[in-house]
Structure formats: C-alpha cells, structure tokens
Amino acid sequence: MSIASRPARAVLERLPDIRSWQEDLYRDIHQHPELPHQETRTAGLVAEKLRGSGYEVHSGIGGTGVVGLFQNSSGPTVLLRADMDALPVAEATGLPYASVVSATDSAGNEVPVMHACGHDVHVTCLLGAAALLAAGTEHWNGTVVALFQPAEEVGDGARGMVDDGLSQAIPPVDVAFAQHVLPAPAGLVGTHSGPVLSAADSMRITVYGRGAHGSMPQAAVDPVVLGAMIVLRLQTIVSREVAPADTVVLTIGSIQAGSKSNVIGDRAVLELNLRTYDQDVRRAVLDAIRRIVIAECRASDSPKDPEFELYDSFPLTVNDDEVTERVSAAFAEFFGERYRPMPAQSASEDFSDIPNAVGAPYTYWGIGGIDEARYREAADAGRVARDIPVNHSPTFAPVIQPTLDTGTEALVVAALAWLAR
Q: Which positions bind Mn(2+) (predicted)?
C-alpha cells in the first residue's frame, strides 16, 4: 500500500458503519422519486443528513438544490456533485421497493415517475462519502462541497444553481467531480480523459404549407412532402458535411402533420436530437440544419418562413487531462482490477455547467450497477444489448451492492487525491 492510498483506506474503514442506513435511504429515495424541479422531499432528506454529519447546509439554490460545506483546516476545496431528479417512466422492475408514484409534469400531465437513471444511487453515495469524510477529519485538510443538483434530466438544473448565486454560497473550488451509474458490472469504476459525454441539442422545427383537399393537391403546399424532403436531406449532414473522424449523431425522433387521410394540412412539426463532441462541429451542424430547412421550404414555395426552437440543450463534458490522470492513478491503486478505462459515452449531462461557471477543472467517471453474474452470462451469450437494461429503461435497476459501496469509495478516493494529509 502506498502512502498516497492510506488516508482513503483509513477513512473508508468506517464504510461498514454507514452501509445499513445507506441501503435503507437508497430504497426510500428509489420508492419516492421526484420529477425535475420537484425534488422537495429528496432535498429535505439530503439537508437533514448533511446537517447530521456536521455540514453547513444551504438549501433552495436554483429551486431545490442543496449544498453542504465542511471545512477542515486550510487546504484545497473539492466539489462533489450528485443529481437528484427522476424520469416520467412507469417502473417495471418488480422490486419490492419499486416506485408506484405519479406526479404532474411541467405540461400539466399526470405521469408515472421512476428513478430510471440511477440518480438515487448518486445521492446515496454522495451522502455516504460526505459522512465518511466528516468522520475522518484526522486524515485530510481542506473543504468539501457536497452539491446536490436538481433537474439534470432537462438540462437546466446546474445552470439554475449557478444563476441563483451558487458561487456566493461556496468558496473558490480547486477541482470538481461527478459520477454516474452505468449498465456495466457492479463494482467496476472507469474514467476517460478529454470529451467524455456528448453535447446534446433538441430542436423543434415547424414548417408551413397551404392546406387543401386531398383530391386537389395543386391548390396546396403539402407540409408532409416538405417534411419528408427535409428528413432525407438532413441525413446528408453527417455523411457529407462532417469529417469521418468526427462523431455526430443526428436523429429525427418525431414528425407530426395532418389530421385525416384526405386533408392536406398547413404545417408539419419535426423534432430532432443532435449529439456532438466538438463545439465547432456542433455549431456547423446546427447551421447546416437551419440552412437545409430554409432551402427546402423555399424550394416547396412555403408561404411562411420555418420556425426553430432549441430546447433541452446539454453542454459538452470534457474531462481535464491532468485531473483525470490523477484520479485515474488513485482509482487504479485503490480498486486494482476493478478500475478500467471508460470509453466516451453518447449520453449527455449538464454537470459541466457548474465547474465551468466557478472556474474549476473537473473529471466525470462511471461506475457499474449490473449484477456481475447476470452481466457475464449476457456477455457470454452475446446478448448484452438485449438482456441488460440501460439507463432510462423501465427495468433499469442497479443492484444495491456493491454499487453503493463502489460509488461511495470512488468519491472518497477522488476527494482525498487532493485533500489527503
């Protein structure tokens, strides 16, 4: 054991002491999920637990965001972040603590709610790490900022906390960390230097036609045909306007037009999603989308200019090279064979809005959450894609252990790579 790993192992000796309440809390949060910007119950549990561990607590930042501060003499400031919100998904895991919750979403619709992305894991692990760090102050110096963020799923929770004065509530941050549970074997930890999560943009495009009877198409500008031409032409952006070395995913996920087979409507609404790993490429593709849509509307003699609405935009997540190298070394030493490099993910996050706003380098890593034997059986059969539920699936259910232990350990190990005496 190296000198560098001793403080983390010493702090984590108390992990068995918190395991029971962590597991109970996880089941509680899983059973009581809350939609983005509605995380009041979760935020209350978080604040109560932080105060019980001796943290100075600031609640209501960005709506339901919670920050806990623990200063232990002078030293670096490390920010650890967890997201709290759930998804409008009907749970189908069959677990005894499965969610049966429903809630009213932002559009006024009654929807089922489930922690289908593992944010309940993130909250529980960070509360455990915060408690262990507070109990092991003889092994480290500095300040821990435990940040619990709302509304990650809609991409504006981090920015909401920043805009609501986050920087005034916390000291200057030296480094920031976040993690996510993934459909990989439980117990594994992985990192990746550089772009690790894609930027994501959703766009709603409304194009206009001229309505008429289906028997008299000469009197119409058909928005269905116009929309079809746009869909086909947009596919050429990736194949003909993006360099082969750049990764771009462009998906048209929804087209809505018309109301009856013999009626030509007067508009079509297309919704698309874009994933990119480079800001210049992102801007170029967004510009190309607008250019193509406008040109197709003119080619069809559309009576009105198209309308574009960007929504649910997520920033690019780019892990700092030096920070990631230091965390990776600490993980490799602590976890041994359980540490593995993580490939870049096509999913998206808004975590980076926080360290970018406070001027701190950061790294973001993944932990596995799938029963190891189940995963191995699926892998051996070549059926991982079919048999292993992924995030946002109604059957996504991380095994409680060793998932919680691993996530808690990873946060402590990363923090003490900066804070250890």
A: 117, 119, 153, 180
